[in-house]
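Title: Prediction job returns without error message
Component: structure pipeline
Severity: low
Priority: P3
Assignee: unassigned

Description:
Job completed but the reporter wants confirmation the result is attached to the right record. Sequence as submitted:
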Amino acid sequence: MCNVAGLDSSVAGYAECFAQSGITGEQLLMLTNDDLERIGVDKLGHQEMLLQSITLLQSLVTTTTACTFVKWQIFWS
């Protein structure tokens, strides 16, 4: 079982499901309830917790990308 920092211990074990299913970081950011169910996350509460974490990751990626873009824009100005 993989230990994933930041995830509640009740859902951290699903990291192994992601790995076995070949889910990449980019694909992780696009997972839906149906996708989670298909890879073995069958408890609705666990799906909700994982989707909340995925939403947080999406916002972090968006913020980081925007900040990086602004830094590069300033650098090249």
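Comment from assignee: result matches the submitted record. The helical segments are 9-12, 15-20, 25-28, 33-38, 44-75.
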